[in-house]
Amino acid sequence: MGGTLLSLALTLLGLLLVTFIIGRVMPIDPVLKVVGDRASQAQYEAAYRAMGLDQPLYIQFWRYIGDVLTGDFGRSISTGQLVVNDIKRVFPATFELATLGTLIGVFVGVPLGVIAAARRGGIIDQIARVVALVGYSMPIFWLGLMGLLVFYGILGWVGGPGRQGIIYDGMVPVVTGLILVDSLIAGDWGAFKDAFSHIILPASLLGYYSLAYISRMTRSFMLEQLSSEYITTARVKGLSERAVIWRHAFRNIQIPLVTVIALSFGSLLEGSVLTEIIFSWPGLGQYITNALLSGDMNAVLGGTVVVGICFVLLNLFSDLLYRVLDPRSK
Amino acid sequence: MRHLLTPRAILLASALAIAPAAYADTPADTLVVAHTIDDIISLDPAQSFEFSGNDVNQNTYDRLVDFDPLDPDAGFKPSLAESWEVAEDGMSITLKMREGVTFHSGNPVRAEDAAWSLQRAVKLNLTPAFILTQFGFTPENVEEKITFDDTTLTLHMDQPYAPSFVLNCLTANIASIVDKETVLPHVDGEDLGNAWLSTNAAGSGAYTLAAWRANEAVQFTAYDDYWQGAPEMKRVIVRNVAESSAQRLLLEQGDIDVARNLSPTDVDSLRNVEGVTIQDEPRGRILYMGLNQNDEVLSNPAVIEAMKHLVDYEGIADSFLKGMFAPHQTFLPMGYLGVLEDQPWTYDVEKAKALIEEAGLAGSTVTTKVRDLREYTDVAQALQASMAEAGLTLNIEQMTGAQVLDAYRARSVPIFIGEWGPDYSDPNTNAATFAFNPDNSAEAAATGLLAWRNAYAVPDEMNEATQAATLEQDADTRAQMYIDIQKQYQAEAPIVPMFQRIEPTGLRENVQNWFSGRAVTSVMYRQVTKGE
């Protein structure tokens, strides 16, 4: 466990170092963002010193590490708020979306992949192939806009851009920051329905993308298993095809599948920038991108650390799952 | 596969449970606005210098003088100051405070609050402070220079500035009047309440700030005791919606009342949608072309003249800038005191070609560094095409806004294409940056002046005229002085104003009296009404 913690610490340190260096060599002047286009040279220099940019890089980095260890990510220059508070606000929005998206990806993608493998070359396999191909190759902003146009603009089945309708805006007390959960805690069924109608379209879109990936991976894992000798043995023993597939083959692909799902969840947690922009979803992806474009390094570094921690935790979590799923490790 | 049906069944059931919701109009007493508000850094009027931040302050605070949203062309009008008087020597202005006005806290608005607010802005000396400090106030002397008694406030200036100049500057966001007693308990060290006011409001405006979630939404609640009468819209919600097409869909569905960032394509298609109207308002920003005089080719007077004829003003305004910009060839925006209405330049490639050949510069190459905004890059490409016909090659380098600004301030952009927005509602705001550059040397580092950024050595007489115009007491004479400066500017300056911004706003049909601020100020909500 000590080894795990050490490697975790080193990973995060490396992450901080890389982002810090990228931030400093980026050809964007963070001082200008603070003082504005019209500032005099004196104002500019005062701000430059106040931000500590006159210090050598290693001192800046050393200070930064110190701040981060005490939980101080500094103040974002593009929102004027503490980065910690910003992230507390934007992360739940992304987390909610990514979780629902991944659930859709898993519950549709896994069975689709299994069936495609079991009936290889069959009609479902062909459909799964097309679905995955479209999922991989369609630009997400196009699908998002079309989805909005059809399901919101024409049919009116779902809510429009944003996390909530206007009447519910800011009405549900914030507990977790996940509106679906908070509205249930508040017992506000109307707010829940409203939030669900807003999240379902972007979540389906993200779900579609992770479905495309998960179903292809599931299919190839299954094919590998189904061509193994123990499967032939099981079939010779006269087990039903359903038992062969689900009880034998599927059980053996669970471990690699967990890794695939964790990775796909992790990448959604970084925030799908385009989805967030199209759906006016105030999430982490939009936050980090905005920060990056305006040279707001405190916000970028803070956001990156959060994403880094997510990946590390997901890795830990899938390690733990391995132990549960793999009888040999018991 | 039975056990798979369970999650699927859950999904299906939940999809059915969420029956298609009814998307009715927004509530009758609530105004819902979609806007990109990701530029707000601070809501402290002494600091805010971004469009959206000023939009918020405009409605939560009052100023001593303000524009009337129903009659913006009339210029500034009395607001918290009900009248003013200029001293005989012109060195001071005394403003009489309106009685019976209260802040949102219930505290009365006193001359003391007004003096403290202006002193505070000068002492904090943040980005927009120059709007006040240009009258000779410094953090050190401001307590002696801005004085008050029970009913009046007096500004003692270092020169006899034009009264219209001073009063126009008092309409600026930085001159908002802050509730001193409310802010004092929140002062942290030397910050004069800056940290607290960054996220809170303490004004007397028509609206109180109900909530601000950065990059997400600003909510306002009507101030029922507002001295000009309680606003009709009891709530105003401004939502950050970055995508034009998303704003358009929301507007079509009636989920919002106002869409403020519509692309020309979306504006075009909304013009034919029932229940939606488009309101075009001229705004203050000028799209101009700066020719860097450190560049060998661009500093040739023949090339400067030729470039003015290589812009297809009408063609561009009728095609890809349609509905966003109108041709405008002077540095003062329409709506400003002393704006020159002449449009002397025409698109004439043959003439430009002749000029360039005569100067022996045919075949030369120049570069533009242009921000990766569609409008700018399109203009650059149109220019590239017409320059090619006239015998010049234009290299287009696209970069982010921050990168271009960096290079521009370092005087390393040969041809700059971009916008300039006025800082306050007086003509001096643009004259002092386009037509004023007392020291063109690199060491002067006057990075704030557009003339310096383009290495344009403004002739002495123009520098002097620009300064003299700030001191002219008679408003008509003053207007004529600006007209003269602009005429000379059009004749010789290497900075070429091309277009003025037009802002189309998409409105639900029942929204009346919408006002985005024209060229002179920011959005106001208090006069907006919603009919049936």
UniProtKB/TrEMBL annotation, chain B:
Subcellular location: Periplasm
Pfam families from the UniProt entry: SBP_bac_5
Domain of life from the UniProt record: Bacteria
Location of the Solute-binding protein family domain: 76-440
Keywords: Signal
Family matches, as PANTHER family: ABC TRANSPORTER, PERIPLASMIC OLIGO-PEPTIDE BINDING PROTEIN, PUTATIVE-RELATED, PERIPLASMIC BINDING COMPONENT OF ABC TRANSPORTER
UniProt-recorded name of the protein: Peptide/nickel transport system substrate-binding protein
Lineage of producing organism: Bacteria, Pseudomonadati, Pseudomonadota, Alphaproteobacteria, Rhodobacterales
